[in-house]
Amino acid sequence: MTHFYFRLNISYQSFEQLYRTPNTIVKVREEGGKMIQIPAMRFVPFFSQLGVRGRFELILGENNKFEKLQQVSL
Q1: Which of 3, 19, 52, 59 is the most buried (most CB within 10 A)?
Q2: What is the pLDDT of residue 22?
Q3: Across-strand partners of 22?
Q4: What is the CATH classification number for the domain harbouring 47?
């Protein structure tokens, strides 16, 4: 498994627009410097009145298949 850590801070209004657009991708730079593209829909469980904020861990399995996205801190 491969683990990537990154921080994200998207306002409520900005994420709401992303959420309404089909197949939208959020691009993040992980702490090691690599750019990662993640479907915006993966962040819906973390969407609140503040938007999407915090430090996240992305876990990929074999062949870079999505396994899990979790918030590790605010």
Answers
A1: 52
A2: 84
A3: none
A4: 2.40.50
d(CA 49, CA 35): 27
- In this prediction, residue 28 carries a pLDDT of 96
Helix, coil or strand: residue 33: coil
CA distance linking residue 28 with residue 5, whole number of Å? 10
Residue 40: per-residue pLDDT: 93
10 Å Cβ neighbour count for 52?
A: 23
> For residue 35, what are the domain limits?
2-73
Tell me the residue ranges of DSSP E strands in the chain. Answer: 2-10, 25-29, 35-39, 52-60, 66-73
Alpha-carbon span 40 to 11, nearest angstrom: 13
Say if pTM beats, i.e. exceeds, 0.85: yes
What's the token pair of residue 35? 């750019």
How many domains are contained in the chain? 1
